[in-house]
Amino acid sequence: MNANAEEFEIKDRLKLIESMMAEGRHSTENWGWTFVLWGVAYFIATAWSSLGANGKVLAWPVTMIAAAIITVFGAARTKNGQPETTLGRAVGAVWSAMGMSLFILLMSLGWSHHYDTNVAVAIIGAMLGTANAACSFMLKWKMQFACAVAWLASTIVACFGTEAQAFIAFLVATFFCQIVFGVYAMICESRRRRQGGAVHA
Amino acid sequence: MHDERGPELPELNPVIHGKLRLALLSLLAGVEEAEFTWLRGKTASTDGNLGAQLMKLEEAGYVSVEKKFVQRKPQTIYRITGAGRAALAEYVQALKQLLGAAINE
């Protein structure tokens, strides 16, 4: 084998190893749809709760339970056949713990009639900010860190602003950090799936 | 080395040197465990070829296999072993040394 062919073959193998290892790591990142789903759920609940007395009582519990059920079924389908990775489990753990805590907290606040828009937005913003920041550090993803900053900004607005300002901050953060970011994540995932090459040995 | 048979790197671990086996070990190095069907999809190989190559890796002690049923469907799960990880690391190291030698030639 001449030096050039040998060099090419070695580089080809190193590239194959690197791309296959990266393929495994990226396989667990098909979660953009959950951001969009929860963003849409927040908007539906908000719109429904503004429709009247019945809406105020039912909107959040019904929408959140429906979104949780869809997430569980969707997650089972998404994970089907996907490999288990430490990184995937770590990211999943952050979101599962955050989701459970937020779900129980908001349900309890709603049913105990202690719900206050400013407090709720401050808590939601802080928890989603923490989860997004933790994941952005793990995945080294600047876009997700920007979402964390936006959620934390909504927390600050909720603490210092009026109820209307807190409400607007929540809707803006939901739109950018859930729906826009979710669609962006889905585009990244689909681009990566298209780029993922097969090994023809 | 100069011969007419095309690119070959005989000094390297022959178990890992096969391109499909190398891809499989690399895929498994990036995950904790993976199903047969996922490995087949990622490598675009046939069931027979994939099964044969995985068996070679298993015989060498580089991967472990677990067969189980999930919702009444059979699943074959593969994991890279410590020996497999060490062998892959050695292989990468050897490739880098060869690359250095090839560039300096």
Key terms for this structure?
heterodimer, A: 201 residues, mainly alpha, 85% helix, elongated, disordered C terminus, B: 105 residues, alpha+beta, Arc Repressor Mutant, subunit A, three-stranded antiparallel beta sheet, 5 helices, disordered N terminus
End-to-end separation of chain B in angstroms reads: 11 Å
Number of strands of chain B: 3
Number of helices of chain A: 7
Q: Strand share of the residues of chain B?
A: 15-25%
In the CATH hierarchy, the architecture of chain B is: Orthogonal Bundle
The chain-level structural class of chain A is mainly alpha
What is the domain tally of chain B? Answer: 1
Strand order of the largest sheet of chain B: 1-3-2
- Uncertain runs of chain B are 1-6
Query: Count of DSSP E strands of chain A?
Result: 0
Shape assignment of chain B: elongated
Number of helices of chain B: 5
Helices and strands of chain B, in order, run as HHEHHEEH
Outline of chain A, from the CA principal axes? Answer: elongated
Largest sheet of chain B: 3 strands, antiparallel
CATH superfamily of chain B: Winged helix-like DNA-binding domain superfamily/Winged helix DNA-binding domain
3D structure, described in words:
The complex is a heterodimer of chains A (201) and B (105). Chain A is built from seven helices and no strands. Chain A has 201 residues and is mainly alpha-helical. Chain A has one domain (3-195). In chain A, α5 packs parallel to α7 (163-195) and α6 packs antiparallel against α7 (163-195). Chain A is elongated and about 80 Å long. Residues 197-201 of chain A have low confidence and may be disordered. In chain B, α2 packs across α4. Chain B has a three-stranded antiparallel β-sheet. Chain B is an alpha+beta fold and 105 residues long. Chain B has helices at 14-17, 19-29, 36-43, 47-59, 82-104; strands at 34-35, 63-70, 73-80. Chain B starts with 13 loop residues before the first helix and ends with a helix.
